[in-house]
């Protein structure tokens, strides 16, 4: 249905294996501190995050820029506000893997081949 304004997106399960330039989508729980001393955390909702990878910090951290944030499940009376488009985030790769992250397939005939070259250990510095 390309003529009707619909775009078919192909998502690939990636866990935490992302590189600079990927577009990633994952469900993320929203937590709130509860109790007198606020030591316990209670899950109050789930948001579906879509973000682009803007940078990597070592093998642990991923820098992201929010493209879309949708609140899916609210478990409290107050409405939750989604994150703004363009907001910068920093997440661990293990957090993305735990959330069953998916990445958008690279477009074009050579899209995935170009991505494979970008992450190849043979294309690095000598």
Written description of the protein model:
The structure is a single chain. This protein has helices spanning 93-98, 111-118, and strands at residues 11-13, 23-34, 40-57, 61-74, 88-92, 102-104. With 126 residues, the chain is mainly beta. A hairpin with a 3-residue loop joins strand 3 and strand 4.
Give a short synopsis of this structure.
By secondary structure, the protein is mainly beta. It has helices at 93-98, 111-118; strands at residues 11-13, 23-34, 40-57, 61-74, 88-92, 102-104. The longest helix is centred in the last third of the chain and has 8 residues, at 111-118.
Strand content: 35-45%
Separation, N- and C-terminal Cα atoms? 46 Å
Approximate helicity band: 10-25%
The total count of strands amounts to 6
Write out the strand line-up for the largest beta sheet, numbering strands in chain order: 1-6-2-3-4-5
Oligomer: single chain
Structural class: mainly beta
Mean pLDDT: 81
Structural shape: globular
Low-confidence stretches are none
String of helices and strands: EEEEEHEH
Q: Count of helices?
A: 2
Largest sheet: 6 strands, antiparallel
**For the CA atoms, what is the radius of gyration?**
17 Å
């Amino acid at each position: 249905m390309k003529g009707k304004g619909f775009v078919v997106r192909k998502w690939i399960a990636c866990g935490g294996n992302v590189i600079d330039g990927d577009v990633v989508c994952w469900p993320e729980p929203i937590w709130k501190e509860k109790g007198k001393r606020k030591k316990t955390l209670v899950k109050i909702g789930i948001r579906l995050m879509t973000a682009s990878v803007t940078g990597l910090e070592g093998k642990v951290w991923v820098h992201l820029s929010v493209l879309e944030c949708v609140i899916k499940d609210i478990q409290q009376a107050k409405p939750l506000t989604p994150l703004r488009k363009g907001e910068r985030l920093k997440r661990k790769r293990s957090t993305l893997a735990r959330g069953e992250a998916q990445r958008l397939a690279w477009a074009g005939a050579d899209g995935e081949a170009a991505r494979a070259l970008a992450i190849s250990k043979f294309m690095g510095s000598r």
